[in-house]
Amino acid sequence: MEEKELYPYGLKKSVLKELVSEQEIPKRLSEISFGLFSPSEMQRLSEIQVVSHLLFQLPKREPMPYGPLDPRMGVCNTKGICSTCGQKVQECAGHFGYIKLALPDPHAAADDLQFLGEFDEAVKLDESLAPHLNKAQDDLNPIRIMNIFSRIPPEDLELMDMNGKIANPTHLVLQHLLVPPITIRPSVAMDASQGSNEDDLTMGLGKILNINNALEAELEKGNNMPQIMEKWDALHINVALYINSETPGIPPTIVPAKPTRGLCQRLKGKKGRFRGNLSGKRVDFSGRTVISPDPNLRIDEVALPELLAKVMTYPERVNAKNIDKMRKLVLNGTDKWPGANGIIPRDGGKLSLKFGDRSRAANNLRIGDIVERHLLHGDVVLFNRQPSLHRISIMCHRVRVMPWRTFRFNECVCGPYNADFDGDEMNVHVPQTEEARAEAMTLMAVNQNLITPRNGEPLVAATQDFLTASYLVTRKDAFFDRAEFCRLCSFFVDADAKIDIPPPAIVKPMELWTGKQLFYILLRPNKNVDVCLSMEVKGREYTGKGSYEPLYMCRKDGYVVFHQSELLCGIMDKKTLGGGSKENIFHVLMRDYSTIVAADRMSRLAKFCARWLADWGFSIGISDVMPSDKLKREKDELIQTAYAECRTLISEYKSGKLQPQPGCNVEQTLEAQLNKILSDVREACGTACINELHPLNAPLIMALCGSKGSNINISQMIACVGQQTVSGSRVPEGFIHRTLPHFGVNARDPEAKGFVKNSFFTGLTGTEFFFHTMGGREGLVDTAVKTAETGYMQRRLMKALEDLAVQYDDTVRNCSGGIVQFVYGDDGLDPTGMEGRDKPVDFSRVAMHIKAMLPANGERGLTPWEMTQRVDKALNSPMFRGGITQGVRDKACSALFIDDIRRYLLGGLLPQRDADPPKYFKGCLDALVATRKRFGLDACEKTQEPNPEREEENCARVWYESMNCVERAPADEKEKDRAARERALADRQREKATLLAERGIDFTLAFPEFFAALPADVRAQRRIAHTKAVDGAVINKKGSGADARYNLLVEGYNLLSVMATPGVVGSRTTSNHIIEVMTTLGIEAARVTIMNEIQYTMKEHGMNIDTRHVMLLADLMCFRGEILGITRHGIDKMNDSVMMLASFEKTTDHLFNASFHARQDTITGVSESIIMGIPIAVGTGLFKLLRKTPSLDKEPKRGLLLDSLTDSSASPSFTLDIASALAATSSPIS
Q1: DSSP 3-state of 771
Q2: Strand 394-402 and strand 301-305: pairing?
Q3: Which domains does the chain have, with CATH numbers?
Q4: pLDDT tens digit string along 882-906?
Q5: Structure confidence by residue, pLDDT tens digits, 360-392
């Protein structure tokens, strides 16, 4: 109905509103300013002055007026009402009060701000000042400090980096103390007889008020100075404890027995405001329970318990298409799934469906209402496992609601989560808006994250039982009749797809199909499916070595060949189905088709393998680890041979005939050689086990296919456990000159130093068991210690790299616009788009795919001239050289990549017909970096990505071993012959020199003739050994014959002197001391050294990380022209955002300094945006959309009632308006 009610003077309500209406536009914080409150500002901010130290009025226990719990500062219970604003605790955030201090008190943070400088320079000029320094400090009481600060002129404040208007030094001396609202220091009521539990801040304020009132009383008397000074000191101590309860220097008699939480303690730490409530917080619409496997689910699905689906709801808006569905859900109510828990009408309010008439609610449902419905099949949720070490620790799954109480998902997705099913728990979060659902499905879906950004290898892939079943079903002896083959084909799909049965592999005497043909059905169920997989790869069991390449005729069927989706030969194992390999069939399907195709085939494989393995049967028992008599004899022979070698070495050691290795003494040489011999025994026993076990042995099958275990595990179970190590060496001597009392003094034989010759099947002796527990204990301690170390390292890397992103100009910048890289990774390519090892396209595999898809069919081959012409024409097109095509600018490929394409295409590999060269660059174009992608966090996460085989041991630390590497100059071409003739003599002299050096004889000075006759590398060693800051040098020979080179491993510092030593090639000298490299060779050399050290460490731990991630980390550490460590000090220099630094470490220090220097923090980075609740300016939160709108005929702006008062020409109109308003009024107006 039209509103007919008239207001005074006959004006509509909207007209009066317009007089005082405010423009409701979106507001966004652009910056935060820090400063110091003046006493007058504290008074203006506060509602009351707090003067009473009493909390309650007795006996009613009502809050004392003007006390710390005065209701004018807010309320903390649900029933109370704020006396200032009249609101309840849900709407009232609280109000401040203030305490006027009887005497000024310096701020607790002012002790750390050394703006007065030091007295050292003054004492140097006049030593007579030294005895008076203590007196000067005694005279600096708060009143005198405030007077000194007040006399500082404004121009001097600028030199002190202070802003007198915002942060005056006099404000560091407190004259007023703010009392925080009651809502942040709630009073917890208890039984009537017991009173209430008060917050530490409230009790601290009570003490301060009590002392302050007593001090005021003493000041009024004015005749007891000792009492005044004593209470003044007590006031200072209590104010300091109120601000920081961990203030140092507090007398033990005053420190409270129970630790309290001051204002600083509420801000800093893991549970403080920044990290516990702002950067991360507890959320609604989330659940957590135990996980369990379900191979029948698709890899992008997660099974949620029905109980959880009825609690976690999604607010769906009612429209014309879904209103009938929503009414059915409302009728089901809260207890029946699928149902709904509540309705939010479009005109406000909320209706619960727990109680009341649901039929009436369903009938009254209107378009525009919101129904809080239960989770249904196909809904979008986020699935997460902690610790979230990389971005694919949280991914988007589709819901499947099922009974029981656990989360279930496909085992193929265990890799990104690093999950197992031994009691792990995971979290699920339900996005609450359509925008969040769309973004989750687009960016976070499992199908979009099959590949790890670490190096572009697939991380979501077949695992464990799936690999075992695939290995068994693709053996050469796996045959099935028609009925069995059809039944197995039905395992792939749940009767929801058409399958074309291929012709049998064997026709007579009966039709038989092979297990390899099942993979054809897996990839291409029928002829309408356009999936053509063509590839060749060497499997784990490929027998080719060196120049011997049997390929298709491998006796173990280890060469895998797919041609047009048919598996022609080869056994499927971890290399072709599992993660960590770019030769994986799912990786190839992703490249040639899409991630959806790869995910669909992976889901089919999981269903088939689980069902086939349950049908075929696969288990392990004690008979599988029972060694044969032949194996026992072979093991005994291997152990006896190793024992004989060990006894020979020990006898040589005791007789003094054992020659020490370079850089080692005789004892270290003995231990190294014994350790090597005994470690090789276990390897040899494992090889013997592999050769002797039956092909159907369960542990052997798992080790061969890569699903679980290795040769060493089989050897320990069946043959011998092997040498136990502690800290990388044999078991040390825990007693006096022996490991255990069971052995003789100084015993060095294998049994006495931790060698376990028994297997787990035969059982360990008492001493062997004890040695084995020593090695196990070390592993447990290492895991516990490294978990904490790597966790902190992960956090530091995350904070340093979080705001790096690729901009629209292809540069990598931080949030303040500082350029870290001009082009990401020097080539602008995405590591996830690398098809080959550090190459965007694997030309050979793409050529094979195109040959299969586009056969020659009798066409004539291209001549070399035609081939060259076609290739040059394609490579000079805008697609590769860059340019504008249909209004869109294409990025240019690098000249190196174009040269690689030309070299490959013109090499004669594809002369059969007119191949399409753009096919070959698809990988390069796909790998071009996406604008504004967060490569900073990718670099951090991929150095910390979990590895299931080395669970928490994956540390991204650069281990700076204290050894520099110096390469000797190669012999001149003219001297090669002479060098060859003298090599034998030089080797003998080198051995003598090393032996003399080990015995402590300085032959450089004692035998100058001998020194002159030594080879050049030995002379260089002795010169370096006498260099300052060098502890020693060891010669290391690399290569043999004419290619022999000698490295000097130098322990110590002084790189410049080592490089300048005669006989040393300075251009090939490297050091792992980053700072010394920078001071000697410059910042670019330091950057390269950082990259080399990180990659060396990763390689030694068996990890492969794309060099672009390492390059970004090195560039971040060097882009300011100095080496900045990923520590609190380095991060302080990398970023000047107060909020980011406060959320990292030393929270209160950063806030105090920012207030003292009146800093302004622009909210541009990741951490500060999260804290302030602002969308992060990275990825989907960055781009701005400009849209040209058509011009609209706008209505003329309506004038306001009082506008005419400022315009004399409008007076008649004003009079007429009033007259018409009076005429329309039914009642007379006086």
Answers
A1: helix
A2: parallel
A3: 31-103+175-267 (4.10.860.120), 282-311+376-436 (2.40.40.20), 313-374 (3.30.1490.180), 464-616 (1.10.274.100), 622-785 (1.10.132.30)
A4: 766 555 566 777 778 888 888 887 7
A5: 999 999 999 999 999 999 999 999 998 898 899
